[in-house]
Amino acid sequence: MTADTTLITTSLDTDRRRTALVQLTVAAIAITLTLVAASVLAPIADITDLSARRQPPSWQHPFGTDRLGRDMLARTVVGLRLSLGIGALAALISAAIALVIGSVAGVVGRWVDAAVSWLVDLFLSLPHLVLLILIAVAVGRGIRGVLIAVALTHWPTLTRVLRAEARRVTASEYVTVARRLGRSETSIATGHLSRHLGPHLMVGTILLFPHAILHEAALSFLGLGLPPHAPAIGILLADAMRELSAGSWWLALLPGLALLLVVKAVDAIGQQIRALTDPWSVHA
Amino acid sequence: MLNRRVARFIGVRSARLVLLLAGVAVGAFLLLEASPLDPVDAYVGAEIARVGPEQRAMIAERWGFDDPAPVKFARWIGNVAQGDLGTSSIFNAPVTEVISTRFRTSLTLLAAAWVLSGIIGFTFGVIAAMRRDRLADKVIRWLAYTFASAPTFWVGLLMLALFAVQLGWAPVCCATPIGVDPATATLGQRLAHLALPAITLSLIGIAPIALHTREQVIDVLASDHVTFARAQGEKGWPLIRHRVLRNAAVPAFTLQFASLSELLGGSILAEQVFNYPGLGRATVEAGLRGDLPLLLGIALFAALFVYIGNLLGDIIATRIDPRISLLDRKVGS
Amino acid sequence: MSLLNVSNLSVTFVQYARGLRRQSLEVVTGLDLSVDSGELVAVVGASGSGKSLLAHSLLGLLPANARESGDLSFDGQPLTPARRRQLRGHEISLIPQTVASLDPMATVGAQVRRAAQVAQHVDPAEAATQALAERHLDPDVEARYPHELSGGMARRVITAIALIGRPRLILADEPTPGLHPSIVTEALQTLRKLADEGSAVVLITHDLTGALTVADRVAVFYAGTTVELAPTSAFTGDGSKLLHPYSRALWRALPGNGFEALPGAQPSPLDLPGGCLFADRCPLVIDECTVSRPAAVSVGDTTARCIRINDRQAIEC
After folding, report:
1. What is the reported pTM?
2. Helix or strand or coil: residue C172?
3. What are B235-257's pLDDT values in tens digits?
4. ipTM for the assembly
5. CA distance A51 to chain B (A)
6. Three-point CA angle C210, C213, C214, nearest 5°
7. Sign, Cα dihedral of A167, A172, A174, A179
8. Rounded distance between C-alpha atoms, residue C24 and residue A220, angstroms
């Protein structure tokens, strides 16, 4: 191997491995804390208190209260839990679709591959949000609508990656050798494919997760997502928009900020896992 | 000889476009057919309480709402082919008219945001790559990743809250002042109303463009021709200007045109926050109130818009990179 | 005092493996070299032995994750990183390996003119046309793009650019990779002429035969270290004038000399042995060889890193 052509340029002064593990742990802790807080605070999220309406942040109500006197911290963490749950579920469904379609396209090849490519292009020919709205409207909104819409919008890009990888494995030499040695098609498939597709699938799914969360929030904000009584962040922000002229800035700033932090945490987990399993992706 | 290749290029691209639009048409139509929306409701709109069952049956029969799906699709496609996309139940006007009016309003917003995000994104990307791993790079990357993780509409809300409500520097809503006939609004007034939505929309685009440009410039800086240039004594800004910019420009332009898709999507959110009466708001209204013809029309229009965007990107790439010829088989496949 | 003096140059790279664990690649461990004006010294070694890094090191172009040590001097003064930045393109110049060293998006003319500008020529356009003419290229080449040139023409353009600053030291990095024999000869003869005209030339190559046709001295490179620095005249007969077993094996492996290949392979830079790097393949190895890296020993005009040089038996082998 010629060292001059296989270099990764990195900043030598930080120990990449330690940074990665620290970031991972911090992010994981943050998300766990959020989920715990949601379980603890869920009961008070719906309690209205008309004597404490539209209160700015205080010790009693760290995130303030909304126009019905409901505690915003409780509503926010419950909303975050909703977002995390729906985002995760949608990402998993997307990943499952991508795995099946991508492997079939990569392994079977020829016209199946071409058909899948065209289908992927079709889904990618529309802006994400337009497709989301179409599907949400079609399926009838609510949680089911959001789940299906988000899941169906995210499978194309991951499919491309998995299909390319599957193609590479099928065409590669060890598969030809395995065939010659008489191993059956299925055992070749499961063995080699899972070994190669596994890391891509895991990283791809985790990286899908933040997009899924943001898209659910967008749909809910527009009124096409979760039902209005659920404290989804998108809905909280839609309410906040109506309250802006009343000067209740905390209703807009804090839930959105919380969502941003959660999305960043999930993204950080994905990036660090990718760096740990595939050091070639580390560009620093 | 050249003309034949040009003709073939145009032919291939047009055929692909038609195939794509057909796919979108079928897909969207099937989706909405399967939806629980009742087209009679959408048609009747606000008068819904006053319409009895016999009238509903008459409406359904008159418009063919109860016909089998293939028949409806054939009718709709037939109309589309003649340029008739149906009538919007919300706006009570032909869909084509609604789309063209609303798009004209969105166009200024989209164009402003597009140009802003391109210029700012590219500049920051180059700076980040030039100052790689130093403070400027770290700050730019942190900002980019943060904006990429932030919900667009939240950023818009914050800008609205701060600059419009709190500070009063910009108007609170719409494309023109309230109470003023839009046709008589001055350029200054339009720009004032355009500012916040355009900035919000551009913020989404800046992050991926900056990050991608940074990657591209870093790749170019590691290339053989830059190593040779440095061996000749080239360094600093002249190195970037003479040996890197044009090489990084091609993928930058391609990305810029590809970002039109996300831009259109983002405009839906930006217009919602700022109550900007463009195509984005119309899409949301159509979705909320079940205006199927308008939704279908917008779906087709969006696909067309994205396709043309990518096509323009390919064409521009050939202008900049002397190695690519548009007429070669490989381009845009 | 030679124009260029390299003593015990070492280059190590830090890389990341699975799990982001750091690992070191010791690619160059002990490179010695001296070149004088009017001299052409060839650095010969197998592909992957790290010899290209010599050129990048001298020009200060090693990547950020490289760690370097050793003594480098140019024209009697130490070659500090700052000095390298100053001298490159002006007194020290590179003729790179690959034709991809030309910017695919600029015309030949634009690139040569820019090089002339950087080399501070008063009239870059004139200097450019002249530089191309010296390489037997017509002015109409200036309007073409690199991908429109033939391999040989591209090589000549690269040489023109490298020489436009009238350098005193020329580093030619593998200038003949897989090229047509007539182009190879032309390239090598060009380098010889440059040396004859007073420049110092370092030719980095894996082609021993070609190198011997134009070099004054040859440095034999193995696994990141110069095992021998000998005059061309030592490469003759059965190779017994060469001191190091690897040099002899290399000479004897040539088609005209018996074509005896040496079994085994170079050690990986990830995991170098503590002793002599050639120990596992050497026909003369003894236990003492594996203890520590041999120092350079001179016999006459030749220097080699082997503890068995003065062994009578070894020379008779």
Report:
1. 0.82
2. strand
3. 888 998 989 998 888 888 888 88
4. 0.88
5. 25
6. 105
7. positive
8. 51
